[in-house]
Amino acid sequence: MKLRKAGALAVLISGGGWLTAQGQIPTALTPPVLGSAVSPPPVLGSAVPPPPFLGSAVPPPGSAGNFPNAPSLPGEAFWANNGNNHYYGGADYLVWKIRGYDLPDTITSVPIGLVQVTQQVRVISPTPTPVPPPRTVFVPISVVTKASFGGPSSTDPGFVNGTRLTLGYWCDDNHGIGIESQTIIMARGIDNRSVSNAASPSSVLLNTGVNDQIFVICAGSDRVNPAAGGSTIVITDGTPTMVSNNPVTIPRNAASTVSLTSSNSLFGTELNVRSTTLKIGAADFGTLVGFRYVAFTDRLTASSNVTLTQPTDVTPPASDTLSRNLTFSTVDQVRVWNNFVGAQIGFDSEVHFGSMFLAGRLKLAVGPNFQSANTSGSAVLINNDSERPLPASRVTTGGLLVGPTDQGDHDRTRYSFIPELNLKLGCQIAPWARVTVGYDGLYLGHMARSGLSSTTNTLTVSTASGSSNSSSTIVTPAFRFADHDAWVQGLSFGFELMF
Q: N or C, which end of the chain is more exposed by having fewer CB within 10 Å?
């Protein structure tokens, strides 16, 4: 009997200790209801929560007090790459300006033709000599036009619109290496210039290079008076001397109009391999290598119209046989293409400040520049004087910018270099999208320009008749390739998507 009581007491003590370890103190021992679920005993070695202190409030299940507060993360953690964005693409709206060039002199010599000039000859000697009969001299006459447009001395097409498209792919989750292509398309920039004196024609004198009289002084006289005006010619060595005076000039009223239209366009594309070589905190530094193609086109069109009429208030010389109403028109066009293909290297960086970032890129391309040009020029001479049919109406080649021998195609190859700088300030508006505003500077080195390729050639024509000589200088335009450096700079506004 005593042994039974001792065993029951031991069981109660051990069961009470187990219940105390569970943090619950039973008020009464009740047998489990038949069929109810019995909780299994805890696994040996498992963590057992400590009992609450007496008098402490126990929060109800499901309340906020049962869960820890969410940690506060920096902005960089939200915008950082999660390794899922391998593709990216973007577009920029460009407002760029291409530097112009100095306006050409637009000097042209319009070859009117051979003009007949009557020349008198007088012989002065101690013994009177019969006056020789007049002689006829044919001299070339040309009209030289030089337009001054005023205002800026260089062409200025202003700011033009364009776009830049970017596509890229990262080969790894850490954006360590990738491939990227960019394409730039700029609209055509146009600059128009015009100058005219048609409202108030100017008086001009066409110099024939011939004098209306020639005085031949024979040997044997030391002092003679060849002209009734009293001018004296002194002969010091007794040799025959020929003196001429009163150059033959043809007065005309000239009304002229000169117009220039210059334009340019730019297209470029490139393909590069990118790599992120260094990461310091929120800053990434990378390099790129690839190739670049740039097509820069430059055009210049010039037209002129000159009308020569005999003035009514001036008595023309008797030797004036030139038409009293001449119209001369020219049309020229010079088109130059620069096709650059070269290797390219570059460096870029990007620094994040929360959701904002600053990006920069510097590139340099070097390679051959295949230059080609097409030139054309024509001139139309119309004689509106039926009583003086010479010179006859005709169409000739050459005008303000292009000479007769420079018509057609021209080409050559030069080496050029193209550096480019891009700076952007952006905002990451979503993990997959961001917007930017920036500045771009592009330098086109050793590019052929249309206006600078027009120069002039000078030709002196001499006319000899008997013992007299006359000369006339003719200035004609010519085409020659000329290198020029062009700046391209402006603003960009864009967006980029990552997926």
A: N
Report the C-alpha gap between 18 and 50 in whole angstroms.
14
Burial 176-195 (b: 16+ CB within 10 A, else e): eebebebebebeebebebee
What is the per-residue pLDDT across 150-197, written as a single tens digit (0 to 9) for each? Answer: 777 788 889 999 999 999 999 988 888 999 999 999 999 999 989 998
Size (the chain), residues: 499
Q: Which of 498, 494, 477, 492 is nearest to 106 (CA)?
A: 477
Q: What residue has token string 């070097």?
A: 366
Give the tokens for residue 349: 């960086």
Question: What are the tens digits of pLDDT across the range 386-396?
Answer: 998 888 899 98
Measured CA to CA, the distance from residue 443 to residue 460 in angstroms comes to: 42
Q: Are 397 and 405 in contact (CB under 8 A)?
A: no
Architecture of the structural domain at 84-115+147-206+252-498:
Beta Barrel (2.40)
Give the tokens for residue 495. 């967006």
Helices (H), 58-152: 75-79
Task: Kindly report the backbone phi and psi dihedral angles of residue 236, in degrees, each rounded to the nearest multiple of 5, phi listed first.
Answer: -100, -30
pLDDT in tens, 310-353: 998 888 877 788 899 999 999 999 999 999 999 999 999 999 99
